[in-house]
Structure formats: structure tokens, C-alpha cells
Amino acid sequence: MIPCLKRPSRLSLFMKRPVWIFRGAAYLITLGLSHAGVPSEKARSILEAGNQRFTEGKALAHNWQKGQVAKTGAIGQTPSVAVLTCADSRTPPEVIFDMGVGDLFVCRNAGGFDTPEVNATFEYGVAVLGVHTILVLGHTKCGAVTATLEGKPVPGNISLLTKSLRPGIEKIHQEHADLSQEAQLSHAVEALVRYQMNVLIQNSELLHKSKMDGKLQVIGAVYDVETGRVHFLD
Hints:
- By secondary structure, the protein is an alpha/beta fold.
- It contains eleven helices and five strands; from the N terminus they run H-H-H-H-E-H-E-H-E-H-H-H-H-H-E-E.
- It has helices at about 10-15, 20-30, 40-55, 65-75, 95, 115-130, 145-150, 160-170, 170-175, 180-200, 205-210; strands spanning about 80-85, 105-110, 135-140, 215-225, 230.
């Protein structure tokens, strides 16, 4: 009689696998912003969790990029979250939220403000790709906002940037005249985020209707370039 060989349990096999497989499973569970089925109420918590991993040095996205590239290349993109943010080299959304290829639909310019082209891009994201959340992300120590606050002459086409940013922060000097320049800048960054959150919707019938129908939410946050942490606005 041939003795039966005892097969190892699935649990024991799993426990013997490399740690990165477990971490990869966590990535699939906690990210998932490239899947249109992610509910909008989960978007902020997923972004918060990603930023926490980033600040703690526990980023996961890089573990799965090869597979994610192949997947998005084959079936296309289905991002749930779009981001409007500054072109500042210190503020790459995919990095600070520990996201991967196909997870975020991003528009960037110096200062992070709405334009007809930006607005049309987000309309495409909502109408075609399935975007249900737009995040307006400002950041501390923003050079474009600083230049706008100072109001000094700027060369070339840079004046187009300050002109576009000015409406969102024009009241800062009057409302916070007793504060230092650094404190005024902090208030200005947050004020600009809130202003752009409204402008995005005001400038688009499509986005406005999607928001009124409960199919789109617009949220705001400020990224701290010194700590790496993102503070979401109420």
C-alpha cells in the first residue's frame, strides 16, 4: 500500500511566499482607483491611506507597475479620480498618494488653476472615463501664489499665471493684513483651492450637472512640501 502524501495547506503555502506578495495584495485592496467600480465615498480614504504609506516610507505602487502597465495598455484607462494641481516638481500626485499607472487623471499648471483646456479635460474624464471625484490640490511654499501675492512685475507670459490666480486670493491682504507674509501665503493657498473647487463647476455645464445629479464630487486638499503630508479641507 502506497502511503498518502500529505498536501500542504493553502495557508502554509501562503505563509511561505515572499513578503512582497502580501504587500501586493494590500496594494490591490487599498488602491483600486483605476477601477470605475470604486464608490466615490471611498475615494478620499483611499487617497489618505496612500499618502500615509508615502510619508511612512511604505509605498506599494512600484511593486505592481509592470502588470499595471500591461493591463491599462490592453484594456485602456478607467480612473475614478482626477486631480488639478500645481506643476511644482515637488508635488507629483501619483507619488504622494502612492498611486500607480492608470489610477489618476491629472492636470497640472503653475498654481493649479482652471482653464478652458483643463475644464474640457475633466469633462472628458467624467463623461467618457468614469471619473467621479475631482481633487483640487494646493501646496505650501507655492512660487506662483507667492508671486501673485507680492504683485511685482514678472517677465514674459508668467503674468498670465498671476492674472489667473489673483481672483482667488485678492482678499488675503485685506483679511489678514496683520499676519506675516508666510502666514498670508498659507491662507492664500487654501483660499485658492476653495476658489478653484467652485470655478471648475461654474465654468462647465457638464460638470455642474454631474455634481447636481450626485455623479461627481469635488474635494480640496493642501500638500505640505516639507512633511509630505496632505491635509484635506472640510
